[in-house]
Amino acid sequence: MKLIVESRFALLGLVMVALTALFGVAFVTSSAGAEPGAAAREPVVAEVESALRVCPPPQGGDRESELAAFAPAGEGEGTLTAAENSEGASDLGGSDTPGRPWTLDTGDADRHTVVRAQGAFAAGLDVTQTTIGADDDYATAVRCAEPGISTWYTAPGGDDLSGLRLLLANVDDHAATVNVDLYATDGPTSSADTRGIPVPAHDEAEVDLAELIASTGAVAVHVRTSSGRVASSLFAERTDDGADWVPPTAAPAQRHVISGVPAGGGERRLIVAAPGDDPATATLRVLTPDGEAEGESVAELGVPPAASAVRAVQDALGEEAGTVVVEADRPVVAGVAMDRSRGSDTAYAAAVDPLTGPLDRTAVLPGLPRGTGGELVLGAAEDAVAVVVTPYAADGGAGEPVAVSVEAGHTVVPDLEAGDAAALVIEAREGSGPVHAGYVLTQGSGGGQATAALPAPPAPAEVLLPHVDDSLTSVVR
Q1: Where in this protein does the record put region Disordered (predicted)?
Q2: Per-domain residue ranges for the chain?
């Protein structure tokens, strides 16, 4: 026993000596000026050098689907490749010409498509997938997801939907396990199918949520992993023609701004969920081209604990596009669902980060298919904003920039006259307030017009990397 104790203390002594040596080396080799007790150094600005996006297989029958990727021209070289999400899959195509919009026909895809970008293609990259009708008015659009460990959505409930399907993709070399939390109007709901969902490496899974939301007016969906990471997408079906992707919305917070709420008649409903154990009270603001709306639509909204609540906001919006601001006394998630009064068209808007300086001032909107129309919707929830919108042609040529200003408390739909632009780049000017942007894609006209909404979050070309001088992190790494 004595030998064991002595060996244990001897081993501890050796470990302490080794750690002392490591810290000594770290201190001696640290950069000049990193003295003990010195003020923390500023983060380093680094260019984005690689990016990964995952596009779900198209839904809604035999229609024309196209994946589109674009990064504004940067310095240096770059590559972009696309492949099916399967073990050992061959490339579906790619490009080595940064600064030019790139597209891929995904009409026959029955698995997720994985897009990988390097160098100048990664800086400021965004990727979307659109599906439009060849012989009918139909439009869906989705921003291709980055794999992650937590994603939130808000959607209508069973009274308004015939289906709600969650698509999961694992593009990594190790398995992932997923749990799905649902916050309905009468509280949380789950089943064995939403717990411990296995998604093997380079494989996919689909979860049908229809039965779980059959008796609720609205639902918040939280997709989280207990191991690994996944790319998730949520497809909501009202009818065969009235279907669209629900965009991810911001994680629980006390303030959200939902941008790009489409214009048009019919119902437009705000969905707010409080995932915590306490009820929440939310105050609402609806910003239109005429300014901030008043009336019963913007009265306080009470949200039960671990549940969701719904508020109709079409009276406040009229038939105009808008921006909705939600401020609550507890962390909540929020989004807007739209049903047109004629036909069966649907669209969804979500809360995303605004465009603001110095690094997150630019958004990229690729994938504007020929034969479609669209509107850019800009909101100024806090201060007045000023942006420059530049259209890009299919050959990468930049069109005439358009300057747009938005008064504080207003929403503006600028007349861009973008013509046959294959992509748009939105840049907040220096000194501008936070810009809340979204794009509304349309096909057809009149009562049969099909609509899809795409939030426009920042697409950074550079990010901040923190210093780790003289820290345990720097030693371990």
Answers
A1: 78-101
A2: 1-35
